[in-house]
Structures are given as C-alpha cells and as structure tokens.
Amino acid sequence: MADTAWEALRGNPLRFFASLWLLRTVAYVLSGAMLGALCLVWLPAALVLGAVVAAPALTRPLVALERRRVVLLGGAPLQDPHVRPDRPGPIAWLRFRYAEAVTWRELAYLGLHATVLLVLDLAAVLLLSSPVLALMSVNLTTTRAPTDPATGTDVVVAVLIGALGALALVVVGFFAVYAVPVAAIAHAKVAHLLLAPGSGETVRMLTRSRARLVDAFEVERRRIERDLHDGAQQRLLALGMTLVGAQLEFDDRPEAARALVDQAAEEAKAALAELRELIRGIHPHVLTDLGLPAAVAELADRATVPVTVTVDVPHRLPTAVESTAYFVVAEALSNAAKHSTATQVSITGGLTNARLDIKVRDNGIGGADPTAGTGLAGLADRVDAYGGTLALSSPPGGPTILRLELPCTG
User: Fold this and answer.
1) Which of 28, 137, 155, 275 could form a disulfide with 184 if both were Cys (CB 3.0 to 4.6 A apart)?
2) How far is C-alpha 115 from the chain's CA centre?
3) Which of 323, 329, 370 has the alpha carbon at shortest distance from 346?
4) Residue burial 26-35, b: 16+ Cβ < 10 Å; e: rest
C-alpha cells in the first residue's frame, strides 16, 4: 500500500482514482486555492502593517499551516528549520530571522502561493468542475416551432450530437480528474523545495539533535542508576540480611534458618528478574544473540495488538543500527497499544542500497503528535545522530505510519 499520493499515482493510476488518495488531493488543491487567496490578501497587508520589517512574524502562521498541510498527500509534516535566537525580545528575534535563508524562502513561497500556485490550484479546480458546468449549460431547447413534426434526420442528428457531447464530457472529465493530483503533487513539491530544511539547516538541526541526545543519554544514565539503587540494590541488600539471619539461626534453630534460606532464594529470583528486565531495557538479550528480525518478532509476540511482521534482513547489521531500529519499533508498538485504539499493526522492513528501511503501520484513529510525550522525539534525535530519518504520518482518522531509514555502513 502506497504511503504518499505520488507513490499511489505512479504505481497504479486506476487504483488511485478508486481510493481515498483522490479525495485527499482534491482537499489539498481546494485548501490550497483558499489559502492562496488568503495569501494574496494577507501578504501585502503584512508588509504594510509590519512596515516590511515585521512581515516574517505576521506571515508565520500561514507558513506553519503550509508545513502541516502536506500530510494530506502522505508523509510527515515538514520540519521547521528555524533556530531559536540566543537573545530574548522581538528585536533580537527579527534580526535573527532576517539572517536565516529559510525566512526569505518562506516569503518567496508565500509570494508564489499568492500568484503562480494560486493560478495552478484554481485551474485544477476549474477543470475539475468543467464537466458539471458543461452539463448545467446545455440548452435542450431547439429553434424549431413546437408544431413542427420531428423528422428522422432530426432524431439521428440529435442522437449523434448527444453521443459526441457525452464522449467529450467523459474525455474532459478524465483529464480533469487526472489534473487535480498532478497539480496537488506539483504544489507540494514546491512546498518541499522552499519550506523544508536545506543542507546547511539540516547540519544545524543535526548538531542540535546530537546535543539533545547527549542530554538524553545523561538522563537515561541517571534513570538506570536510580533503578539499580531503588530496585535491584535494595533486593540484594535484603537478600544479604536474610542470609546473615539464616547464618545466625543455623546452629540453634535449624528450622528457622531453613525458612530464611527459602526466603533468600525467593529474593534472589526477584532480584534476578528485575536485573533481567533492566538489562532488556538497555539492550535486549535476543537482539544481541539473534539479531533484529528475531527481536522484532519477539516484540510482536509480546504486543497487546495483533501484529504481522515482514522484516527481511539477510545478515547482521551494525549494533547501533539494530539497537536504534529495535527501540523505534518498540516505541511505535507501545504507542499503538496505548493511544491509537488500533486493531492491527504491520511491521515491514528490509535493506535497500545499504540502508535499513522499517515501516510500522497501524489502523488506529491517527492524530499522533511526536511532541506530546510519546517518546518519539528522543528517538528522532537518536536517529538523526546516526544520519537517519524518522518520519511520522498520522492524519486524523488514520492510518498512522512511522517510517525509519538508517544507513548501515560501518
């Protein structure tokens, strides 16, 4: 199943027209026409009201909406490459924004949206509605007087004209329906070109993600230290005290010593189970011994939602790649069970040109937000640090698709 409108249209056009992708492209074009008209009005107003200087602040909501609107065509919202200013205050913010190349690309995009892209969207809408307009404008009256009898020639001519008109409507309707996704995809390509992070901005985002990753590792180290201190260490301390008590009772009260030894055995089992659970959270045993496909299959077996797994990895991957992919899949399954009300999850993956591609798809209600404490934000930083990408597509109503790509060199 295709994940984007372009993949669906390129793969099987007939199936595309019978799917929801057509409605999503129509929604993208219609909303683009409305927002283009809004840009046509608001962009000059923002330049005047903001005395040109404050135009980036006044047009920021429109740009943010455009970055999120691309989810209608599949894929994740476009990332915002802006960097937070070092100094507070509106003056520092504007000065910093004007120094960024993305600010000028955003203004250029809004200008295109108010002109060229608006014409493109309106042309697609007009072409889509042309068959309906043609039917509404058909004049079925004739110039003959009502009392004139109809001849056989008149009937034949009327049938031929009707057939040719119907054929013309079918041809125009086909091109009209085909033009809408083409216009939507072309519009989205321009949005990706101007609003997505450039190469230099990607490097800065990667630097920031690595800094956040260092902080996350420090937080994780403290969590492990706390879990060891509050959990396993306390159980081992209780085990030691129980054994000391059994040693003191061994000579005088053998039965009491036996009971204490049995208690110590149970405490040792509990401590061992807790240590195993802690180690599994750091690096699962099955991942170390059997590799990623077996580890993902074990995750699927433990999941509370039915999961189908198709992961084809012919050889072992670098440890960092396997570990990152494992925890991304684990987090995706956890989110599907907790938040999505999904009844089916599929995990597919394999190697393509020395890159691991993993896709987790569920049929839940959608609307997932990686910034709402789902754990994906930290994993995205980890993926960025290894030069990979983590994309989330979760429109309201579903489906939710999490796609991971990681380089497997090294």
Assistant:
1) 28
2) 30
3) 329
4) bebbbbbbeb
**CA-CA distance, 325 to 403, in Å (whole number)?**
10
Q: How many CA atoms lie within 13 A of 389 on its CB side?
A: 12
Classify domain 217-282 by CATH architecture: Up-down Bundle (1.20)
Q: How far is CA 210 from CA 86, 305, 379, 384, in A?
A: 18, 33, 11, 8
CA distance 357 to 388: 10
Contact 22, 180 (CB under 8 A): yes
Residue boundaries of the structural domains of the chain = 5-197, 217-282, 286-407
Q: Are 292 and 311 within 8 A, CB to CB?
A: yes
Beta strand extents in 339-384 (DSSP E only):
345-352, 355-362
Q: Is the pTM of this model over 0.70?
A: no
pLDDT band per the 50, 70, 90 thresholds, residue 195: confident
Domains 217-282 and 286-407 share a fold: no
Those residues with Cβ within 8 angstroms of residue 6's Cβ, 6 or more apart along the chain or in another chain = 73, 74, 185
The pLDDT assigned to 29 comes to 92
From CA 275, how far away is CA 142, in angstroms rounded? 90
DSSP label at residue 80: -
Angle between helices 152-195 and 116-137 (to 10 degrees): 160
Count each helix (H run) and each strand (E run) in the chain, helices first. Answer: 15, 5
Q: What is the CATH number of domain 286-407?
A: 3.30.565.10
pLDDT tens profile 336-377 = 888 778 889 999 988 877 888 899 998 888 877 666 655 666
Span 223-242, pLDDT tens digits: 666 666 666 667 777 778 88
